[in-house]
Structures are given as structure tokens and as C-alpha cells.
Amino acid sequence: MNWKSIFLGGLGWVLAGPIGAILGSILGSSLFDNEIDTKNSKQQQENNFLLSFLVLIASVMKADQRILRSELAVVKTWLKNSFGEEKALAYLKILKDLLGKEYDELVMARQIMQNTSYSSRLMIVQLLLDIAHADGEFSPEESKMINAIAQTMQITTQDYQSLLSIFEKQTDKDWAYKVLEIEPSATNDEVKKAYRKMAMKYHPDKVNNLGNDIKQKATEKFRSINEAYETIKKQRNIA
Fold it and tell me: What does the alpha-carbon distance between residue 77 and residue 71 come to, in Å, rounded to a whole number?
């Protein structure tokens, strides 16, 4: 039994809430040794966010009882682009550890909800959807897991459906309307108004604080909004 891990885990609960217990346990192991500076306050904040997010990622990856290379590849790319090669390797070690354990992902989702902006949470959900769709399938278990996380982070049903509709271009003829969060019966003026609203909501500048890859996700959503708008304009012959 690793008493150092247990002590630091208990200390984490006192000092930093639910996330602190997990972080403290990892600090007591060798996962952080010489890889991540845990004394720097800015780094500590990054650790707290990343660990919370990694718990959500692990939960989504395990939801359908299959951990796939395609899903892991999405996570690797995000970590590498956001934090660099060295930190990515350290965080991947943590993810591997988390995949073998059980944590309450909704507690972590609540922690993220309390400490990040709404725009940031939207991009977090988008990345979770990217991971779940990496194998070309979206299982009922994955859908249930991500929907529960989105609800806990207070993502509206319309916003969640808008994010999800990006993956449904081939199966849902109304996908473009769902991206813009309107009904097919909307007037042309309502379409234009919805486009402006969504473009403002998902502007990449709103998630600058979450790193380059999350900003890239915002850019992808921004492009999807433009694509949806152009699709509707073409269908309706709107100038």
C-alpha cells in the first residue's frame, strides 16, 4: 500500500475538492516525476483542468466497453497540439491509469462547469463527441454518457444538438437547421439572424485560454456554421 499516495489524496480533498483527491493520488505516484511542474500555480491550474477533463475522456472511451486506437489517436493529437510532446506523454500516462479505474465523471463535469466559461464547455463537449465518433460509430452508451456530461455542465439541449448534428450530415436532411438551432420552417430573416447569433457564440477567440487545439475545435465549429448557412442559402436561393 502506498501511504504517500493515500495521504496526498486525502490532503487533496481538503485543499481542492473532489479533483484534489485524484490529483493528490497522482502526485503521490511516479506519473508526475520530472515530467510536470506541480509547484507552479499556473501549471497547477492547468493540471486541475486537464485531470478533470481526462476523467471525462476516460469515461467516454470506456462507455461502450471498448477502448479503441482511433479514439486514443484523437486524444493524442489534442494533447500534443495543446501542450507539446513532453507534456502529452505525461498526460497520456495519466489517462492510461484513469482508464483502469472508476471515477465519478459527473463530479468532474460539475467541477469544470464551475470553473470554465460556457464557450469553453461547448468545445469540451465537441472534443468528447469527436472521440466517440472516431471509429465511425456513436453507440447508445457513448450517447448517454456524453449527454449526461453535457447536462451536468449546463449545456442547453439546442447547443448539444447543434454540436451533434455536425456528425449527421449524411443521415439527417435537416442537419443544417439543427446546426443553426432553428426549425426548417424558419423564415429567411430568422435564418440570417440565427447564423449571426451562432457565429458570435462559437467565435474561436472565446476559447483562447484553452490552448490551440480547443481553439481549432472552435474554428471547425465556426466553419460548420458557415457550411450550414451556405447549405440553407443554396436550398432557398437566398442571395
Answer: 10
